[in-house]
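FW: tagging you since you asked about this chain on Friday. Here's the raw sequence from the shared folder, copied in full. Didn't touch anything.
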Amino acid sequence: MYCTRWLQASQTAKRMLSTNCVVMKEPVWATDPYLAMLSSPLRRCKISLRIMPRDMLISLSVAKAPDSLASTSPIDNRPPKLHIVPNKLGHPYYDPGHLGPSSYILCSRPFLNAVLARPQEAKRLSYGAELTSTLPLRLTHELRVRVEQELTQLWRRHRASPHKATQRPAWLLRRLSQAEAGHIATRLPQESPDDMAALISLDSSDLRTHFGAHMDADAYSSLRPTRAATELPRRRLPIYDLGGLFTERFAGSPGADVFNSEAQSVQRTISRRLAAIEEGLISRNVLSRKPSHRLTSVYALASHQTELVPLLVALWRCRLWEGEGWQSGDGFGIEKARFDLVVPASNS
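HL: got it, structure written out here
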């Protein structure tokens, strides 16, 4: 039975890839975050029962609640209280261990909120464990932390091997000048720069000043084709408003103050890492700084760079978690959707 299910999952993955029947060069495959997500191992969502790549799902496990680890009485034989918690969301360097067998759920906060509203559905994840109301907050925080961890690892690699940075043929990230930002904005969405994989910024106001007309989901996210095609749809440039993502506050929720404080700390770390990587590239003459250029707070991430793929995947998972790219509805409508409509939209 296991072999039969695995064969069915493999055939499903082949159908996903066959919707865009196009011959691509190997470097393009290696530097495309969407294809990197599709190549992750297949897992089944416990709620929607859909088999999908693991990078499009959230891993959950069962752990003992801290207040039930130690019994207050030597004759207290009550079983410990179990909670459903995130598992394996962090970078392996920071989170090498795991909590044992995992259950998977779609990487979508609206979907999880719909599960929380239906306790009978939550029992599919684990019959004896409790699904707490703070789980969406913790998942949001850990997905944000993963972005910071990927940036930190990128910064450490360049700091540890400066001679390799000068040998790379292209830049990794750089800030846009005001003139360049205006020029790119006039070309979107009809034409996207081939040398840029994404735009990110921690300053929401500055980002919306230059790219406000292109920050709606429909403006920068292209739908996957519903029939086989000979070429990929027109590439859209993803725009990530990290400032808006990290300024979200969890008012009225248990532990909200802790999560808000941690979010500010992660935001400051991301800002320092972006600036440090850019300064390192400038000092090695990979990037040039002209005094006449008035720079914005918008960073461009280079395309065709394998080093940036983990960061782009982490950013994309944050977008999926906020509900973008999924089938619209209350979450449980996804169960009845066709498989090709459940897969997030491709930005390339």
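FW: The first strand starts at residue 42 and ends at 44.
HL: agreed, and Residues 169-225+235-282+295-304 form one domain.
FW: great, closing this out.
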